[in-house]
Design brief:
Layout: H1 2-25, H2 31-62, E1 71-74, H3 75-85, H4 87-92, E2 96-100, E3 107-110, H5 112-128, E4 135-143, E5 146-153, H6 160-165, H7 187-197, E6 201-206, E7 212-219
Parallel strand pairs: 2-4
Antiparallel strand pairs: 1-3, 4-5, 5-7, 6-7
Length: 225
């Protein structure tokens, strides 16, 4: 709770300060300056929402109140939707998103809400920790009885020490977001718990200075019986 409170304090202080700026100086601010200030308020409020949302998700996981409803979901269409969602964020850092697959559908036995959350975290992280002017690669393939998913970036990579702390709750790793994006230290912890709740596997392959590749495998729906 102390860590969460600390993470909430910064965006809350920003919202308060920016709101006071508009109240005190609205007569002298141009319309564009007001809009720009409101955009910063929106961004700060989104940071707070993400922190609270992650804490609630962790609470649901640890209290065993999380509901998992496995069904046949096309991972391909899910990944397409999420990549479209992150196009603007990637473009802001001049990052190119690449998506490769050989088949037209990749049905896996997963919970739709949870699998969206998993990919949302992993794609967001790949963009968040990538320097400007780099690439992010998402690849789907079928391997025996599983749907194999890779999210690879060209970021700083992870040291052996950082890799040992991956997927831990409130883990603070050496790499930092490259455009001052928010990080709660809960995303990968949630990813691992959600993937395992869907009877899947997740791991990371990384070498310091050579980027990171997060791999997720889910049971293919055609083999789920």
């Amino acid at each position: 709770m102390a860590i969460a409170a600390h993470d909430l304090k910064n965006p809350l202080s920003a919202i308060q300060g920016l709101a006071e700026l508009i109240i005190n100086d609205y007569r002298t601010l141009s319309q564009q300056e007001v809009v720009d200030t409101l955009k910063m308020i929106v961004n700060s409020s989104k940071q707070m929402f993400d922190i609270v949302d992650n804490i609630l998700q962790v609470n649901a996981i640890e209290s065993e109140k999380m509901r998992v409803s496995l069904q046949e979901v096309d991972i391909l269409s899910t990944a397409h939707i999420l990549l479209e969602r992150y196009t603007t964020q990637a473009r802001a850092k001049n990052i190119t998103l690449h998506f490769s697959h050989q088949e037209e559908v990749y049905y896996a036995q997963v919970d739709l809400y949870l699998v969206v959350r998993v990919f949302d975290n992993l794609i967001s992280n790949a963009i968040k920790y990538s320097p400007f002017d780099k690439n992010v690669y998402v690849k789907l393939s079928r391997r025996e009885k599983v749907i194999h998913c890779e999210i690879r970036d060209e970021g700083p990579g992870l040291s052996e020490d950082d890799q040992k702390k991956l997927f831990g709750k409130f883990s603070r790793l050496t790499p930092i977001p490259t455009a001052q994006e928010n990080s709660t230290g809960l995303g990968l912890f949630i990813v691992k718990k959600l993937v395992e709740a869907m009877q899947g596997r997740v791991w990371c392959e990384s070498e310091l200075g050579k980027g990171s590749c997060f791999v997720v495998e889910f049971l293919a729906a055609s083999f789920s019986g």
